[in-house]
Amino acid sequence: LDEHWVVPGKHPELRVRRGDDGHTEVVYRGCRYLAPSDEVIVLPINNSSAENLATWFGQELGRRVQARFGKTQIQK
How many secondary structure helices (H) and strands (E) does the chain include? Predict the structure, then answer.
């Protein structure tokens, strides 16, 4: 995620479209932003607050641990 534009893919007012030209367009409230697609990461969150990013990190870590080591139980 370092040095990338983290875009919340589940934001209710934000639209993301990856173009065939290697660019990603993000539209928010009438404003249009364009960036190289390899610099944009769309996460399944509704905003990029610290709390939402921490929740996503924890869920992603759990998913990857289970994918690598099979069924596991992670305690809080």
Answer: 1, 5
In tens, the pLDDT along 11-36 reads 999 999 999 999 999 999 999 999 99
User: For tokens 């921490």, what's the residue?
Assistant: 54
**Angstrom distance (rounded) from CA 68 to CA 76:** 20
Name the DSSP letter for residue 12. Answer: T
Q: What is the pLDDT of residues 36-72, one digit of tens each?
A: 999 999 999 999 999 999 999 999 998 999 999 988 8
Q: What is the pLDDT of residue 43?
A: 96
Count of CA atoms in the C-beta half-sphere (13 A) of 21: 6
Helix segments in 1-76, DSSP class H: 50-69
Assigned token pair, 61 = 């870590």
| Structure tokens, 24 | 């990603």
